[in-house]
């Protein structure tokens, strides 16, 4: 290839691509400043929004005493109250003596109209088993209309060596039965084996006065439908059972280890056998719990379960 031919070839390779008519394609215009700012803004939003969402839902940010006092009386923002309660629990765990000044506000929140707040209050009060005010409030919450509040109160009382919530804790090992809120035609929304959380919609009842929602009170999985979907049910009729979630079973077994009686062994035995392919640690905890209850029952009368 001659020098002229080589130069021509290199020139053609460096030339802009031609269009269908054989003419060189026009060079691309650079993005204008407006579009550059738009692209940068969208990119920043994709990075910033997850951070802002995380920060808004994160309770790890420390609160000063004035901030904590304000959070615990905030009637407009339930999340601020929960942030404050989380901060109280952190201080209790750190054994910060200044946290006791906020105990009256925590006890007052046990009467908050929001079940989620009362549930968290019961958990926080269980962190300090030296407070007589917390102990009394937890005993009252055992009669709360919300089942999750009752459960946290019962677990909290165990830390006080108080078995007043024994029946509630043992019930956590059993399937929960959901009753129909009204008479009408049942329309199931979920299938057996599907996961539910508190307030998950599981069915609707077509009642004469309108549709009535059926929601789960507890976390777990749909065990089975006690009434087939599409059939007529009466008010108060059991329509579904919810098998407890793994973490619920775990906490209940740990509590029954301390306050359980021989009458509880039947409720524990299925877990010791590894029923429903539950995690191995649950089966092991169930076996340890049964051993402890039997040992306690065979011990001298002076060695009684904590009250």
Task: List the SSEs and their pairings.
Layout: H1 3-14, H2 33-57, H3 65-71, H4 78-93, H5 103-108, H6 115-125, H7 132-141, H8 147-159, H9 166-171, E1 176-179, E2 184-188, E3 195-196, E4 201-207, E5 210-215, E6 220-225, E7 232-233, E8 238-244, H10 246-259, H11 265-272, H12 280-298
Antiparallel strand pairs: 1-8, 2-4, 2-7, 3-6, 4-5, 6-8
Helix pairs in contact: 3-4, 4-6, 6-8, 7-8, 10-12, 11-12
Summarize the structure in words.
With 307 residues, this protein is of the alpha+beta class. The protein is built from twelve helices and eight strands. It has helices spanning 3-14, 33-57, 65-71, 78-93, 103-108, 115-125, 132-141, 147-159, 166-171, 246-259, 265-272, 280-298; strands spanning 176-179, 184-188, 195-196, 201-207, 210-215, 220-225, 232-233, 238-244. Mean pLDDT is 85; it is low at 47-59 and 302-307.
CATH superfamily of the largest domain: Leucine-rich Repeat Variant
Write down the domain tally: 3
For the largest beta-sheet, the strand count, sense and barrel status come to: 4 strands, antiparallel
**How many E strands?**
8
Please give the share of residues in helix.
40-55%
Low-confidence stretches at least 5 residues in length (pLDDT < 50)? 47-59, 302-307
Radius of gyration (Å): 31 Å
The CATH architecture of the largest domain can be named as Alpha Horseshoe
**Arithmetic mean of pLDDT:** 85
Indicate the structural class. Answer: alpha+beta
- What's the CATH first level of the largest domain? Mainly Alpha
